[in-house]
Amino acid sequence: MSLSTHITPLVCSCSTSDTFMTASKVKKENHRTALCLEESKERITKMFNKVELSVSSYDTAWVAMVPSTTNPDAPLFPQCLNWLLDNQLFDGSWGLPNHDPSFMNESLLSTLACVLALKKWGIGEDQINKALQFINSNIASINDEKQQPPIGFDLLFPSLIEYGQNLGINFSISATSLKAIIHKRDIELSRGNQSNSEGWRAYLAYVSERLQKSQDWEAILKYQRMNGSLFNSPATTAAAFHQLKNTNCLNYLKSVVEKFGNAVPTIYPLDIYARLCMIDNLERLGVSHHFKEEIRSVLDETYRYWQEGVEDIFLDPTTCAMAFRILRLSGYDVSSDPFYQYSEDKFSDSLKGYLKDAGAILELYKASQVIIHPDESILVRQNAWTRHLLKQQSSHYQLYADKLRRFVDREANDALSFPYYANLERILNLRSMKHYNVEETRILKSSYRSENLANQDFLKLAAEDFNICQSIQKEELKQLTRWVTESKLDKLEFARQKLAYCYFSAAANLFAPELSDARISWAKNGVLTTVVDDFYDVGSTEEEQVNLIQLMEEWDVDIETACCSENVKIIFCSLRSTIKEIGERSVKWQGRNVEGSVIKIWLSLIRSMLTEAKWLKTKTVPTLDEYMQNAWVSFALGPIVLPALFLVGPKLSGKAAEVEELHCLFNTMSTCGRLLNDINTFERESAEGKLNALGLRLIHGNGAITIDDATKEMKVIIEDKRRELLRLVLKEKGSTVPRDCKELFWKMIKVLHLFYLKDDGFTSLELYSTVNSVINEPVVLSELLRDTNQNPKPIYQSV
């Protein structure tokens, strides 16, 4: 069944005046949409230049507690103290306004820290009383399992209560509640001290503001970064400076206060991570093509940081993994060596491992899929252990993610279900839009937001852009549906009707409006390769098979007399008109007509199909090598991918080096695809008596190899070919083929892996709903925003 049969035809039932009114209305709507798009793009462009972070009451309170270096009875940063006085919320708390109710424990911790700062300097009595009332009224939330506590809450909150009592603060907390709070702290301390792991020690250092005066402060300085901070945390750094008077700590605090003014964020700097997140989000939402210059500028800078070994990349596995993945996939030469410091045992014995950082594991998993060299065993092992952890339903990696698992699981399930090599762009874009949270709140020791990480403009631009592209694609599919009918291809009873799937594979990868020629070529040739495959497979006599090749070789023939049958006539006419059309359109892109090149591509295919037909008729059993030399061509990807190369933008020279590189790309892609097909269709094709790589491996194995072992062998080859193809596509130095052209080979591999995720997907209807959503179902922004409001997605951010 073809999806195209479900498209509702246009019905012209309105009057001429109504038509003009409708056209005018559509024109105005299109103009409004264009203006909105430009406004969104302008705002997003500005975000590349500046990373915005919400301020943290908790961290500001700790900075406010730092005494002056010349007068210990006065604050070093009085502006921070004044900010606390001016920014108490109406309910007596401090923190982000309009926070989620599940963030009550974070409000308690931030409010308690602010009370300590005000009490320390003997000001703000009214604010203190109001805050204490808030704490006393909400203290029960510390035992609420639905709460999402900030990192270190069970250690920090009771320690700050004790500190407040030492300052003379009278907390109206029942003895039972207080005992329960302290008991939870003691349990965590006991458990951690028993492990005595490096991750535990790093965790204690991160929440070291709980220590006050302690002999451990000098040891904590081993975590100091080159910018003078401890973990890029103003709160931890302020507490350390208070005890040690470390000059580098002071310089960091001064720089943060100078940058942000009267209040500080909970983490700084975050620029590298935030900009990489922007790029990742824009790519996942399908709108990165609007910001090519801005993205290239950020990646050039990030690559320079990578080469310089900047701490903000390499001390954080999340940032390191994201930088590696995005840089490598963008053609930058980055080594996988940094991941040795994040091997399974080292990760589990790190701060991230102790914090059970599911986000870090997910990023490490994504990075592990970008293997392009045969010696990257570190990424192979990384893929195995991160995949294992992500698949665990009751993972140990939940301490700071268990309350958020419905959100973590959704992204993890997507990553596991659709690996990078099976993730078609438009499907990824749709999923990303549905999962995107425009008001995402992240949490460390306190919560924070950043428009660079999530905002409505990203989603708005993505939805509008998707719908604009889809409206063009709907019209193209209607044209293609008419072409099938007018070409009489639907009259060929032996042929599968796969227009919708063929067009989907083009539209899901080549969705930009300006790539219409490439989409049409890809789809038409996809339909025709399916028809010709069925023709040589089950729908023709030997005379017809040879006749079609002769027609293609002679080309300029009298169709009425040269075709030996109506079926041959229909197929040859369709081929000739399509090839001529591609040739004419190529002039605009290449400055020359490539009709001759496309004829050769098609001749190569149908000759290989004739060879297979003869093998089948004569019951010839070729060797596996003989089969593959022919089968990578007969898999029929050539006419789909190769002509499209001429229609995506860059000019191809036709020089020997370029031709050789294209042949290598074509061979690698087709070999990978052919083996993938043969594994998945083995049972069906064996029952039909057809040749198949897996079957031949068993035949020539003389009973010494099982189906399972032969399948494993071929899966290894598929994986090697896939990695080799990605390496060729990403290769910059020594490559003569433009990247936009090389990308087509990788896009086709993604299509094949998606179609064969479960079985021979191309001959099933499982993808129907996916095809329909990409081609025929507009995205409704209001519904996406409504889903976001109903499903807030706070996540824990890497330290």
Structure description:
- This protein is mostly helical.
- The protein has 37 helices and three strands.
- The chain has helices at 16-47, 57-64, 78-86, 104-120, 125-138, 153-166, 175-195, 198-206, 217-220, 234-244, 247-260, 271-285, 292-308, 311-314, 317-329, 344-348, 351-354, 358-368, 377-391, 405-417, 425-435, 456-486, 499-507, 516-537, 542-554, 559-562, 566-590, 595-618, 624-634, 638-645, 656-680, 682-687, 693-700, 707-730, 739-755, 768-775, 781-790, and strands at residues 442-443, 447-448, 795-796.
- The protein has a three-stranded mixed beta sheet with strand order 2-1-3, with no helix packed on it.
- β1 and β2 form a beta hairpin.
- α23 (499-507) runs antiparallel to α24 and α25 (542-554) runs parallel beside α27.
- The longest helix has 32 residues, at 16-47.
| Secondary-structure class | mainly alpha
Strand order within the widest sheet? Answer: 2-1-3
Shape: elongated
Kindly state the percentage of residues in helix.
Answer: 55-70%
Radius of gyration (CA) equals 32 Å
Mean pLDDT: 90
Count of β-strands? 3
Low-confidence runs: 1-23, 394-406, 791-799
Number of helices: 37
Assembly context of the chains: single chain
Terminal-residue CA separation: 52 Å
